[in-house]
Model the fold of this input.
Amino acid sequence: MALVTGAASGMGRATAFVLSDLGARVALLDRSASVGEAVSAIEADGGTAGGWELDVTDAEACASVVAAAARQLGPVDILVNNAGVSLPAPIDCPDFDAAWDATLAVNLTAYARMVRLCLADLTRAGEGRVVNVASTEGLGATGFISAYTASKHGVIGLTRSLAVELGRRGMTVNCVCPGPIHTGMTAIIPDEAKERFARRRVPLGRYGDPEEVAQAIAGLVLPAASYINGAVLAVDGGLTVQNT
Done:
């Protein structure tokens, strides 16, 4: 079974659909009630899925939902940590502490929590797969979103450390770093501004689609990827390798 957090929309939803197309039973977790619609769409396509509303910062709820998903769909073979938030907050603003705590709780602490909750399943057969979704912010930095940037650097560090720690138990732990992608998080950016940014900063000259990130995630959990461990894969159209 594949368990995907932040699965009601964007990259999480696309990942759930791709994994279902590959034959996985998929547990979709999201704080939005629209997770049910995503489950219905997968089932309408002939897949097997279950959906649970979940705030990944609630430790007790996470434990309950992971157990419920395993009862319904079987033990966890694949974990995709995708849920995330971005709360802009300059370092000197009054709300910085609250933004920092909330961002790291979702973007980093919850990732470690979900691995711990799924660990017994993931290591039972020596073939468990974890993919953590970070960001190109984990490979560089942008001002005024230091909590988000720090959390994504943390996700890369967590990925690498767990890859070393858990590799001897047969697990692989990898990370994807999406660049500019058409998601709910970027929907507030005017299209004209996106086009200007892409022309200037992205060699491919465009924003990516959630499905393109989902395919990269899926590639890391396939049997053919069994020797890829601790990798950090940028899915960014070349943004991070271009000198500008």
Observations:
- The radius of gyration is 17 Å.
- The beta strands are 2-5, 26-30, 49-53, 78-81, 129-133, 172-178, 232-235.
- DSSP finds seven helices and seven strands in the chain.
